[in-house]
Every structure is written in C-alpha cells, then in structure tokens.
Automatic annotation (TrEMBL), chain A:
The keyword DNA repair does not apply. Keywords: Membrane, Transmembrane, Transmembrane helix, Transport. This is Peptide ABC transporter permease. It comes from the Bacteria. Residues 105-321 form the ABC transmembrane type-1 domain. PROSITE patterns: ABC_TM1 (PS50928). InterPro entries: MetI-like, MetI-like_sf. Its main location: membrane.
Length: 333, 284
C-alpha cells in the first residue's frame, strides 16, 4: 500500500471529523434559548446571585452563548474542542461531559468488543462448516436462524432476554455494570461481577449477529473453494482438516475483517437501544438519558465522540484490509 | 395484461418465500386500511377490566388500562405501515436523485455529492436520529418518515450511482444524448424504468429499516405521538405497566413484538423473492 493512499484516506477522515464537529455545533445551536434561560434562573436562585451573573457563568460552563454572533460562537466551540472541553452537563450537576464520557466509553467498548469477538469467531467457524458440508442440515438451520434474527430487531431480543432471564428466572441482574459492593480494580470479584452484569447485553449482540457472520462467511468460503489452489491442494493430498483451517478459512476470512470494523461502528450506533434496555451505563445509555431529559451539551458531546469512533473504525478497516490483502490498492474506490 | 406481468406473478407464486411473504404483507396492509373501519377502539381507562386474559370479546385480552390489545395492534398497524410507506418513498426519491445525478453528470458534481453521501454513511445515524427527535417535536407519521429518510438514503444513493456508471455508456442512453434530450428527461424516462426492479426491492428494505428505527425511537420515548404504534406499545409495556414485572402483562408486551417480527420477516421473504423473480440470473 502506498504512502500517498494512506495519507489520502487519513485526510478524508480528518475532514469528516471536522464536518462532524460542525454538525454537532449546529445541533447545539438548535437548543431552544429558553432551556438556557430556565437553567440560569434556577442557577441564580440556588447560588443566590444575580441573573446576569448566573447567565454569564452558565454560558462559560457550556461554552456557548446564544446571544453572540454565529462566528464567535463557532470559534468558541471549536476552541473548546481543541482543548478537549465539551462543557458541563445540564442535568448531572457539576459533572463535565468529559467525565461522563470517560466513565461511559470503557463500558461500551468492553461490551462491544467482547460480543464482536465471540460472534465473529463462532460465526466464521459455522460459515466455514456450512460451506464445507453443504449437504447436511446445518445449512438450512443456520439460514432460518439468520432470517429469524435479522427480522427481530436486536433491542427486542434484549427485552425478551431481560424478561426471561432477569425477571422471570432472576439469573442475571436487571441494570448497571457492576454491584456497588465490589471494589473496582483489577481483582477477581470485580472482573466476575462485571462479566455477570455484561452477560445479557453481550448475549443479545452475539445472538443477533452470529447468523449474518455465518452467512457472509459461507458465501466467501464457497468462492474460495472454487479456486484452483484449493483443488491443487486437495489433489496433493492435503487433509480435509488442514484444507479447511489453513487454506479455506484464512482466505475466506479476509473480506470479513473489513466488515468487522464496519460492524463495530454499526453496533456503536445501535448501542443506545441495547444499553437502555439493560440500563447499562455506556455511551448509548447516556445518549438516551440526554435526549430524554434534553441535556443539549451532553447530547452533542456524546454524538461527537461516537461519530469520531465510527470514523476511526472505518479508517482502520480500510487500512487493515489493504495491509492484509496486497491486491487491494488504496487509491482505488 | 402483458406477458411480462404474468411471468412476474408466476415467478412470485412459484417462489415459496416470496409468496408467503406477500400474503403476510397483504394481511397487514388489509389490517391497516380496513381494520380501523370495522371496529372502534376505546382508549378510555377502565380499571375494572385490566389485564383480562384473551376471550371472544377481547381476542388478545386487555392492557394495563383495560383497553383491548388486539384493537390497539390493528390501529397501530396503520401508523406503523404509513411510516414505512412514506419513509421508503422519501428514501427512494432522495437516493435515486442524488445517486443518479452523481453517476450521470460525473465530474465535480459527482465528487461533491459522493463526499456528502460518505459523510452521511459514516456519521452514526441512530444517535443523530435520537437527537433530531429530541430537538424537533414529531407530531405525525409523515414528518417522522421524512426525518427517518433524511438519514437513510446514503447507501441507496451509492448503489444507484454505481448502476448509473454502467448504464450511462449503454447504447440507448448514448443515443438519447446525441438526440440532445435533457438530463432530467433521460434520468426519469429512460433510466428510471430500467432500475424499477432494483428500486422495488429497495423500497421494501427501506420500509423495513424505517419501521425498525421508528419503533426504536418510540421505545426510547422520543416520538410519543401515538399510543397504539407498536413501538409505543412496547415502550408502555416495558416502562409504565410492568409488562416485564407483571406476568399478566406479557400478552400486551409480546403481541406488538410478534407483529413486528412477522412483518419484518415478511419483508425479508418478499424482497428476497422479488430479487429472484426480477433478476433472471438468480433463477435456478
């Protein structure tokens, strides 16, 4: 892969990030002025200060003053972003948006990456088996499973799991990422507790994505099976096992690696629904809270960070794919 | 009736998936159009009649407020289906116009339009939809559909553009250009009919996607304008009534979920079947 291609890709990603910043800025500008007025009034009565003083402090806190001209507002906003300042939350008192994101992001990344790895590994193995043993019952069973899971939205699967396993049987917790009794840190009780709380959200993602992985892998593996080198290898007497794991699976996996990062972005976007079902304190849960309670600063901060994560995931998928498969030239497409 | 049309119906009829999908979709459409005319839904709260089990008077029992669950589903189907219909229509128009212009005109227009398209593809749409729904008060299905479509046209536009790139060098299009026909005429009168099968499949997929997104938004309580929309029913079942705490409320929770799942499955079956019926290369 050429350096020029890499730089071009990175450049496009940077422009997209900048446009995402502009987008969040305009969303913030749609904040009704009354929301800030109300807040200022509450603030003034709470702290016993004048309304102007409260208004001044609040506009400093959220780094946005609707009374300024638009370019000053934009400069102020972008300046704040360059300092990594996303302002204060409107509903969580005295907590900055940065702190909320710093607390929420690890949970989302944890659940998403664990479920992605599990469903990817199971999915590609199922898919490879489907391609290899085409006459067995495995193929129709998984095809039906894939149709069923793609017709029921994942948050609904989440609700059903919650009702059955958390409420009906009481096997799993109803909300949160860990119990307050365990001490956060690198110790066994905490890790087990985190896994216990993450189990249902992870299961939801895994159940709803395995089918698609398996079908994509099957399609890819069937193509690989038709290649000359596979025929040559089987004539050479390479055992079926080695053929499947070393020859077919490795090559059929390549295009799926790209989908991995894209899927990560997709799941990140869909996380508000799953995390709200399980009241799991990740990014999506806070986007849900912020939109329901009209916390404009928190909304735009979370949207910006989510967008940047998705843009980075897409960039990573392009670069990884070009690295893995030398036939892909980055300049194209 | 033309021969092509008869062939088309025969292929659908022979294809088990497409046929069953079509039947289920037809039942839902019938339910949405005529259902509300046949029975009237009384949404007044009746505490004595709460959580009734299914009976002849109440086919699926009653909800937490003593209202008939089945009738709510029927009334909700009208709202759900109109969101799907309008959103798919808007998505198709936006996707076709942007993709076709981009592919047909080419040059700088193409670069700019594709950059915008890629932007819409990379910014995660669901969180944006949530925020837009929080900022704009959604009051009716048409407005809801427009907001949904505004964030879902991008993949279609990209696909249409690549179709256009191969179509535009075909002889009949070149002939049109030599005759000096205007671009809008070529796009809508010559190219559109050639893409009809492709657009028909995308119409169903777009409707399906829009319905999932709308149900998701309603479930988060971000578009609370209709209490009988299936998404709203799920939300009410989960948050207000203890559908998840109270086993008596299970039917109220499960019914909209079943409807949604069935509808989605019918869409997938029907569009798969359509693809086989309209694309002769896929017929085996």
């Amino acid at each position: 892969m050429s350096l020029k291609g890499v730089l071009k890709r990175i450049g496009v990603s940077l422009i997209t990030v900048f446009l995402a910043m502009l987008l969040t800025f305009f969303l913030l500008r749609m904040t009704p002025g009354s929301a800030i007025d109300t807040w200022a009034r509450d603030f003034a009565t709470q702290r016993g200060m004048s309304l102007e003083e409260a208004y001044r402090q609040i506009t400093a806190m959220i780094n946005y003053n609707p009374k300024e001209p638009i370019f000053t507002q934009l400069g102020r906003y972008l300046g704040g972003l360059l300092h990594g300042n996303l302002g204060m939350s409107m509903i969580y008192q005295n907590v900055s948006v940065n702190e909320i994101i710093a607390n929420a992001l690890p949970w989302t990344l944890f659940v998403l990456s664990v479920s992605l790895v599990i469903s990817f590994l199971i999915g590609i193995n199922l898919g490879a088996m489907m391609a290899f043993k085409r006459k067995t019952v495995l193929d129709p069973i998984i095809s039906i499973y894939a149709i069923l899971t793609s017709s029921v939205p994942n948050f609904i699967v989440g609700i059903l799991l919650l009702v059955i396993f958390a409420f009906q049987f009481g096997w799993f917790p109803v909300n949160g990422a860990y119990d307050p009794i365990v001490e956060p840190g690198f110790n066994l009780p905490f890790i087990l507790n985190v896994l216990y709380h993450g189990a249902l959200p992870i299961l939801t993602y895994v159940i709803t994505t395995i089918g698609t992985w398996a079908l994509t892998m099957k399609g890819s593996a069937v193509n690989v099976l038709g290649e000359d080198y596979i025929v040559a290898a089987s004539i050479r007497g390479v055992s079926e096992r080695t053929l499947m794991s070393r020859y077919v699976k490795r090559n059929a996996m390549l295009p799926l690696i790209t989908t991995l990062a894209v899927n990560f972005g997709f799941m990140l976007g869909g996380s508000p629904l799953i995390e709200n079902v399980f009241s799991y304190p990740g990014m999506g849960y806070y986007i849900g809270q912020a939109t329901q309670q009209r916390d404009y600063t928190l909304m735009q901060g979370l949207l910006l960070v989510t967008s940047i994560a998705v843009i980075l995931a897409n960039l990573a998928s392009d670069l990884i794919y070009a690295k893995l498969d030398p036939r892909v030239k980055l300049e194209e497409g | 009736m033309s021969q092509g049309f008869i062939d088309f119906w025969q292929t659908i009829y022979r294809n088990k998936k497409a046929f069953s999908g079509m039947i289920i979709l037809a039942i839902f459409i019938f339910m949405a159009i005529f259902g509300p005319m046949m029975a009237s839904l009384d949404m007044t709260v009746n505490f004595d009649g709460r959580y009734k089990s299914p009976s002849f008077a109440h086919w699926l029992g009653t909800d937490y407020g003593g209202r008939d669950t089945f009738l709510q589903l029927v009334y909700g189907s009208r709202d759900v289906l109109s969101i799907g219909l309008f959103a798919a229509l808007f998505t198709l128009v936006l996707g076709f116009v942007i993709g076709a212009v981009s592919g047909f005109v080419g040059g700088k227009t193409d670069t700019v339009l594709m950059f915008i398209t890629n932007l819409f593809l990379t910014v995660p749409s669901f969180p944006v939809l949530m925020i837009v729904a929080a900022l704009v008060q959604i009051k009716n299905p048409v407005m809801f559909s427009f907001i949904l479509a505004a964030w879902s046209w991008a993949p279609l536009a990209r696909a249409i553009r690549s179709q256009l790139l191969s179509l535009k060098n075909r002889e009949f299009i070149i002939a049109c250009r030599i005759m000096g026909l205007k671009t809008p005429y070529i796009l809508f009168r010559e190219i559109l009919p050639n893409l009809t099968p492709y657009l028909a499949i995308n119409f169903i997929m777009a409707a399906q996607g829009a319905i999932v997104a709308s149900v998701g938004l309603m479930m988060l309580g971000l578009a609370p304008y209709s209490p009988t929309n299936w998404g709203m029913m799920i939300q009410l079942a989960v948050q207000n009534t203890g559908g998840i705490f109270n086993p008596k409320g299970y039917i109220y929770l499960i019914s909209p979920i079943m409807c949604l799942g069935l509808f989605q499955m019918a869409c997938i079956f029907f569009s798969n079947g359509l693809e086989e019926a309209l694309n002769p290369r896929l017929r085996s």
